[in-house]
Amino acid sequence: MSLVTNFLFITFFYLIGSIPFALILTKLLGHGDIRDIGSGNVGATNVLRTGNKYLAFAVLFLDIFKGVLPFIILSYLYDTNILHSIFLSHFAILGHIFPIWLKFKGGKGVATYIGFLIGLNFLIGLYFLLTWITIAWISRYSSLSSLAATLVAPLYFFFVNPNYIVVIFLLYLFLIISVKHRENIKRLMSGSENKIKFSK
Questions:
Q1: pLDDT band at 73 (very low <50, low <70, confident <90, very high)
Q2: Can you give 86-142 as a three-state secondary structure string?
Q3: Residue 198 confidence (pLDDT) above 60
Q4: Average of per-residue pLDDT across 83-96
Q5: Burial status of residue 22 (CB atoms within 10 A of its CB: 0-12, 13-18, 19 or more)
Q6: For the residues 172-182, what does the mean pLDDT come to?
Q7: Which residues lie below 8 Å from residue 140, measured CB to CB, with a gap of 6+?
Q8: What is the spatial distance between Cα 200 and Cα 187, in angstroms, rounded to a whole number?
Q9: Do 43 and 122 form a contact (C-beta atoms < 8 A)?
Q10: Which tens digit of pLDDT belongs to each residue from 13-64?
Q11: How far apart are CA 61 and CA 144, in angstroms?
Q12: Cα(119)–Cα(139) distance, integer angstroms
C-alpha cells in the first residue's frame, strides 16, 4: 500500500469517525442540540438523558459501526497485517473524539472503541462488553465501567494473541480515552458522578 493510499485511508476513516450521530439524530427527532443536554457529550450515554432509549441505542449502534467499518473495508480491499490495520482503523476513534465538524470537541470514544475491538478480534470486543456490563451493574457508573473495560482490554488481547506491540497500542488508546474522561474521573473521586438508572 503506497504512502498516498495510506493517507487517503487515514483521512477517510477519520471522517467516518467524525460523523456526530448523537447530534444529527437528536436534532432530526426534535430533541434539540445534544450539547445542551446533560453532560453535553455527543455520545449515546448522554442521548439516553433525552429519555428516548431507542434513540440512544441507535446512536450507540452507529458509533460502534464506525469503529468496525475500517476493518471491514481493509479486509475486503487489502491483505494488511494486524499492525497496519489497527493503525489505519484507529483514526475512526480519533475522528469520533476530535471531529473537525464540532471544532474537535467530540465524544469520549468508547462506543467507537468497542467497534474497533470487534473489528480487531470479536472475542475481545465481547469481553469488553461483558466487563462494561458487569461493572456498570455493580457500580452504576458508566464512566467507571468504560475506563475499567478499556484498561483491561489490552490484557484480554494479550491472552488471545500475545502481541506486545498491539497491547502497547491498546494502552495508548486507553490513555486517550482516559484524558477524555478526566472530568468524570474528578467527579468519581469526589462522589458527584451521575449514576446509571436501569429501571427505565
A1: very high
A2: HHHHCHHHHHHHCCHHHCCCCCCCHHHHHHHHHHHCHHHHHHHHHHHHHHHHHHCCH
A3: no
A4: 96
A5: buried
A6: 95
A7: 195, 196, 198
A8: 24
A9: no
A10: 999 999 999 999 988 988 888 888 877 788 888 888 887 889 989 999 999 9
A11: 21
A12: 28
Which of 58, 72, 53 is closest to 12 using CA atoms?
72
Instruction: Identify the burial level of 147 via C-beta atoms within 10 angstroms of its C-beta, where 0-12 means exposed, 13-18 middle and 19 or more buried.
Output: buried
Question: Which set of grid coordinates corresponds to residue 47?
Answer: 442521548
Q: Is 38 helix (H, G, I), strand (E, B) or coil?
A: coil
What 3-state DSSP class applies to 43? coil
Question: d(Cα 37, Cα 49) in Å, to the nearest integer?
Answer: 7
Contact call for residues 74 and 116 (beta carbons, < 8 A): no
Angle at 104 between CA 120 and CA 28, to 5 degrees: 85
Q: Is 72 helix (H, G, I), strand (E, B) or coil?
A: helix
The one-letter amino acid at 1: M
All three cell numbers of 119, joined, read 473489528
Q: How many CA atoms lie within 13 A of 161 on its CB side?
A: 15
